[in-house]
Specification:
By secondary structure, the chain is mainly α. It has helices at 28-46, 50-58, 73-76, 95-105, 109-112; strands spanning 2-3, 8-12, 21-24. It starts with a strand and ends with a helix.
Length: 113
């Protein structure tokens, strides 16, 4: 699995029901595809924020993605719909990145009230 925000590849090791994993640099054969999908993600993300769009248009190379959790109202207002990759529960692969993303991206219950 490739995290398009951090541009790291998650690789599960062993047959330990998803408990063992490593974050690595993206394999060469997947790098171009990951770059393409990251560019798509950036374009969609900057369309939702005028300041980010200005920065992107002025210097696309310097723009970096940050965790979207800094603006929980985008989730509450249904402007952002994050997607996650998880293998069925039998293998538990992807559960840890999913839990990390819930903490990083989704609003606190206090933000929804």
């Amino acid at each position: 699995m490739i995290d398009l925000v951090t541009m790291k590849e998650w690789v599960w090791t062993g047959d330990d029901l998803g408990a063992g994993w490593e974050q690595r640099e993206i394999r060469a054969e997947l790098k171009d595809l990951a770059d393409e999908w990251r560019a798509n993600l950036i374009e969609i993300a900057v369309e939702m924020d005028d300041e980010a769009m200005e920065n992107y248009l002025m210097d696309a190379q310097s723009l970096t993605l940050t965790r979207c959790g800094s603006d929980p109202q985008r989730y509450v207002g249904n402007q952002v719909h994050p997607r996650f990759c998880v293998v069925p529960p039998l293998k538990n692969k992807g559960v840890q990145p999913l839990l990390n993303a819930v903490v990083d991206y989704l609003p606190s219950p206090m933000d929804v009230v």
